[in-house]
Amino acid sequence: MPTISKENYLKAVFLYNNRGGEQMAGTTLIANELNISKAAISDMTRRLAEEGLLTYEKYKGMHLTPKGQSLALQVIRKHRLWESFLHKVLKMSWSEVHVEAERLEHHTSDYLIDKIDDYLGNPQYDPHGSPIPDAKGEMPPDRPLLPLASAEVDGAYQIAHVHDRDPQMMNYLSRIGLVLNSKIKVLEKFDFDGCIHIELNGQPTLLSEKIVEQIKVIPIEYV
Q1: Which of 11, 26, 42, 141 has its CA 20 to 30 A from that of 55?
Q2: Buried (b) or exposed (e) across 121-149, using 16+ Cβ within 10 A?
Q3: What percent of the chain has pLDDT over 70?
Q4: Is the dihedral of CA 129, 130, 136, 140 positive or negative?
């Protein structure tokens, strides 16, 4: 049975390597992500490589083996289904569910998580818009996601994904009524500071660059 540290490590490598960039996860990056010393990360990397869960080449980063990827997807599935359950059934806010799901994901059997999946109606995305792997480890079909920063002025969009690591930002978005699947219109973009002026629920709203960087949208015509 994987330990919690091993599960978090594999999950962090998988999520980083699938973010869409060219650089693969390295020991320094994962150490910062998990708030663990580089020495501890190096030791864990060696152990996981010996167990056949990942490969690592200096200056080229880490790659999960099929076995390592399967374990990572199991943890991600449990995390995102717990987020969905806490949000939909227990009515917890989307700013609260991430921390609780981090705890629950390590103590949930495959049997229980499959029951939760069925109870929720087999959702494809969690409350923040992240895809939920199915029981076979397969992700939902790709969607035409677009960084909000790349949205066009006068374009209409639906909020499809919000990065969930900053509870204060999530609380702020809830207060202004910007949640998953909200529909917006881009009114104006300010290149000098990265802010975007949008129309949300019939009201003009200004989003800072920091918020804009955390949001992805889908053009309304693809919804």
Answers
A1: 141
A2: eebebbbbbbbbbeeeeeeeeebeebebe
A3: 96
A4: positive
On the question of pLDDT at 59 being above 90, the answer is no
Residue 211: CB atoms within 10 A of its CB come to 21
Nearest to 215 by CA among 119, 165, 147: 147
Which residues are registered as beta bridge partners of 183? 158
Cα separation, 189 vs 182, in Å, equals: 19
Residue found under tokens 């909000």: 148
Question: Tell me: the pLDDT tens digits for 112-159?
Answer: 999 999 999 999 999 999 999 999 999 999 899 999 999 999 999 999
Tell me the pLDDT tens digit for each residue of 5-25. 889 999 999 998 887 666 788
Identity of the amino acid at 20: G
| CB neighbours of residue 38 within 10 Å | 12
